[in-house]
Amino acid sequence: MIVESVLHWMAGGLFTAAAALALVRVVRGPSILDRMIASDVLLTTLILVVGAEMVVNGHTRTVPLMLVLSGVAIFATVAVARYVSKQDRGDGSTDSARSPGEEP
Description:
The protein contains three helices and no strands. With 104 residues, the chain is mostly helical. The mean pLDDT is 87.
């Protein structure tokens, strides 16, 4: 019982440290890509916390929450990647404004 309690506290401390460090990186930046990676780490840590809670309490009720969180992380990453790739072009054009045979 004591060992189990110590392991729970240690896991909680590690999850808290990971979330705090990711939050610091989100705030400090310096670039949008650093912030995006940090927010991915933060969402992944949250998914891990929810998964650990499921294991400790022996239920599967929060699997849909984990799926929603992973979907949010994926779509946010794709959105930022598209934004950064368009920003890197520098010409302000979008893919829909080009004709099918035109090179970027």
